[in-house]
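Rotation project, supervised by the postdoc (A.L.). Task for the rotation student: set up a whole-complex structure prediction and record inputs and outputs verbatim in this book. Inputs entered:
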Amino acid sequence: MKKSLLGSILALAMAPLFAQVTVEDPWVRGTVPKQQATGAFMMLTAETDARLVAAESPVAGVVEIHEMAMENDVMKMREIPALDLPAGQTMELKPGGYHVMLMQLKEQMVGGTVVPITLIFEDSAGERFTQEIEARVTALGAAREGADKPMQHQHGHRH
Amino acid sequence: MLSMLQTLNGRFLLVLALVSASLIGCGEQNVRFNATDITGANYGQDFELVDSHGQLRTLEDFRGEVVMIYFGFIQCPDVCPTALMRAVEVKDALGPSGDKFRVVYITVDPERDTPEIVSAYLAAFDPGFVGLHPTMEELPEVAKSFRVFYRKVPTGDSYTMDHTATSFVYDTQGRLRLAVSHSMEVAPIVEDVRTLLQAAR
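Outputs recorded:
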């Protein structure tokens, strides 16, 4: 296979040299006015072992990483210190499992709008890197929540 | 005939009553449900709670409808909206008889679940869903009478609620019939609700 010099340079430039975590399908569940909390969901794939250790968003006063568990049909939701992202494995943050909890909401999450979220990761050496994502708000009560959003691929970069 | 009836003693009437009761019981046992059949359970018999519009409601208000009761809280990002969405899908799948399927939401978080928030929240799913608001004083008793577990758990500056995610289903006579687990899919629930609606005809 012949490759042009330009192609090689482009390929090099576009290669995920700095991409640490791929974020797919980020979405936020819509809220009603005065509702103070909601969840953000997405799929995360780390290139090398990493951990999601924190998140921030201008729409929320507090953002936590939560795990949901069912025990004898009792729902339990807990903050976890970090979510492990083993290399190459897609971790799905979805209803019934993990979510990014947006609390002390400063505004209503209206269906169709976009919410910026900063994800803070840590690599295996303990070095932190961040990634800005834009999560689409799915209207509360909309059919097939989280299943009708367009595919979005966003790559993390070391800063 | 009248004189004959008058000669029947109390004991015979009691036996007669027991036999007919057991016959009715047998008939109900033949009905198979996908959800856990809790017909005859001695809990979750009724409620007397104020709805989001300030009206006092009891199960009696929903006679003729299959009622599904769910306990939850609005700041819940995950399980509660998933359960309500499933209820919407059940109602849609029932078609025209969906009018006879009533979802009743009882909050386990009266502190934050104001009538304003709950009514707006439920309306986003279905305008027919009814929100009920026990006071902080009423809540322990209501939960106990339904054998529902709830607990306030601090997180950050705020709190979340652990709670039973089971939905309780009543027949058109207001009798508790089914416990529907959170993991149950739409189709088997639709089948069960249809069975209950058909039995009422």
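Student's summary: The domain at 33-199 of chain B is CATH 3.40.30.10 (Glutaredoxin).
Supervisor addendum: The interface with chain A takes residues 74-79, 81-82, 84-85, 88-89, 112, 114, 116-117, 120-121, 124-126, 149, 153, 155-158, 160, 162-166, 181-183 of chain B (CB under 8 Å).
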